[in-house]
Amino acid sequence: MSRSGELVQWNNKGGYGFVRDGAGNDFYVHISKLAAGQLRPRIGDKLNFEIVSGRNGRPAASNVAVDTPALQTARTIRDVKRMPRHMSRYAIGLRTTAATMMTLLILLAIAADQVPVWLGATYALMGAASALLYRFDKLYALNGGWRVSEINLHLVDLCFGIIGGLAAQEIYRHKTVKPPFVATTWGIAIVHVLGLTALAMGWLNFALP
């Protein structure tokens, strides 16, 4: 079945990206699936494509053709943060919920004198650092620039930056499709949720000064 959508992510070096249809669904697209004679697409291009079963049985785009080329103006974070029409601007996603839960657990643990205040400050500082990295990586992805490696994103998230990382993924709609990355992110989040829950409930002792 033929569909149309906008190319919202594109790695020109790797030759792959994601096209988003009118319902807000993202489909993986590879350069090998371009129709004969088609040039490399660019972010913002309106594409016509067919849906086939891709890797791991996930739907992917095939027989891709550029319908309307994008005007080549630099895209900004403001463009990314615009919500699709089918989504409410007040909708709260799972990543935001998880980040809020961890924040509340930290505050509860501090209030109960289970952890020192500096641990909460560490989460805040590293969370801000993680959010900035996601922001920069999204901007670089939009305009074909240098990218932040996925290993570095995961490392900062693991080192107490997971709250900011989850929030940034939600806000910028970045790194939310690729299965291995998503699975690793949620693995890190679960580790932190379990650890913070154990601290807040007093099941795990933290050596206070």
If you had to describe this structure to a student in words, what would you say it looks like?
The chain has a five-stranded antiparallel β-sheet with strand order 3-2-1-4-5, with no helix packed on it. The model is unreliable at 83-91 (pLDDT under 50). It has 209 residues and is α+β, with helices and mostly antiparallel strands. 45% of the residues lie in helices and 19% in strands. The chain contains five helices and five strands.
List the helices and strands and how they pair.
Blueprint: E1 2-11, E2 16-21, E3 26-30, E4 46-53, E5 59-68, H1 77-81, H2 94-111, H3 117-142, H4 150-172, H5 179-200
Helix content: 40-55%
Q: What's the pLDDT, averaged over the residues?
A: 85
Q: Write the H/E string, N to C.
A: EEEEEHHHHH
User: Can you count the helices?
Assistant: 5
Q: Numbering strands along the chain, what is their spatial order in the largest sheet?
A: 3-2-1-4-5
Number of domain modules: 2
Strand count: 5
Low-confidence stretches: 83-91
Q: What's this entry about, in short?
A:
The chain is an alpha+beta fold. The chain contains 5 helices and 5 strands; from the N terminus they run E-E-E-E-E-H-H-H-H-H. The N and C termini lie far apart (64 Å).
